[in-house]
Request: fold
Amino acid sequence: MAQIRASGNKSTELRVLQLFQEYGIAGWRRHQPVFGRPDFVFWKERVAVFVDGCFWHGCARHFKQPRNRAAFWRAKIKKNRLRDRNVRAGLARKGWTVIRIWEHALARNVAPKSLAKLRVALGRR
Reply:
């Protein structure tokens, strides 16, 4: 469990930054005072981007339930997913578009499809 980072996952953050550069996505800001603490914010377009780790957000494809303290982890992941839904709803009520990108969707073979939703939200085709 110690190997799974709760925040500040440098390799994932660097991969997203690399993809933004590679696909010409600019205008983002990080660490902005926006409800839900999105990973990237596009103020002008009012788009909030969250990059969700497969473990912490309970990815249907990759999440593996830890054997130790199983009840704790089940409740923890359920709570994280509920918070994700509440953040999405809260931002939507405030006029924001929320894009969630799974950690596994940053792989080279699926990244273009993952970023297509973001490009549409930003009005760039």
